[in-house]
Amino acid sequence: EAQVxxxxxxxITVTGKKLTVTCSQNMNxxxxxxxxxxxxxxxxxxxxxxxxxxxxxxxxxxxxxxSRKEKRNFPLIxxxxxxxxxxxYFCASSFGRDEYEQYFGPGTRLTVT
Amino acid sequence: GENVEQHxxxxxxxxxxxxxxxxxxxxxxxxxxxxxxxxxxxxxxLIIDIRSNVGEKKDQRxxxxxxxxxxxxxxxxxxxxxEDSAVYFCANSGYALNFGKGTSLLVTP
Lengths: 113, 109
Prior knowledge:
Radius of gyration of chain A: 13 Å
Radius of gyration of chain B: 13 Å
Order of helices and strands of chain B: EEEEEEEEEEE
Oligomer: heterodimer
Number of helices of chain A: 0
Mean pLDDT of chain A: 95
Helix content of chain A: under 10%
Distance between the termini of chain A: 36 Å
Largest sheet of chain B: 6 strands, mixed
Low-confidence stretches of chain A: none
Number of strands of chain B: 11
Mean pLDDT of chain B: 93
Shape of chain A: globular
Low-confidence stretches of chain B: none
Strand content of chain B: over 45%
């Protein structure tokens, strides 16, 4: 089954404790991205990757890191999480950046206390 | 990214009525306009999209219209049903894909 998976689905952590949210897709998509969703603010892009070893900042990259060592995986790293990073996070993948359907993962609800 | 303005933020309609959600954008280079539906607790999923060389596209009860001159596009849902209740996001793509802030649609029986 073609899909985008994320783990964990739910996470409660404390300020400053490094965490990684994994994202994997099995559709051979070149483009992958991370969004955060907050009430009233819609979907805001954090980082994106056009291909392996190619990553770039989105609209709200502060406090986040990413890597793209393999085509199928695109982990999101929070080196020192803060309460303002409490949010719902979605990974997405597609064949290209601009004019292709984005396939979203199931979401990761993160709470930072 | 370039802003895309979406209105209204909330919309409540009676079952069977029509619903219209409008978006405006500023990037004149935009040429792809998708709409995503997000049901409660679920991921966003593409429901319909339109490209700049087309003025209207229909898929059963949903349709999207595009006015490139005025830089706005709209989602039309006819004969609404309770299962249409969800958050709808418009987006436009030029240099990058930009999402609107979403419209929460409630269809009451």
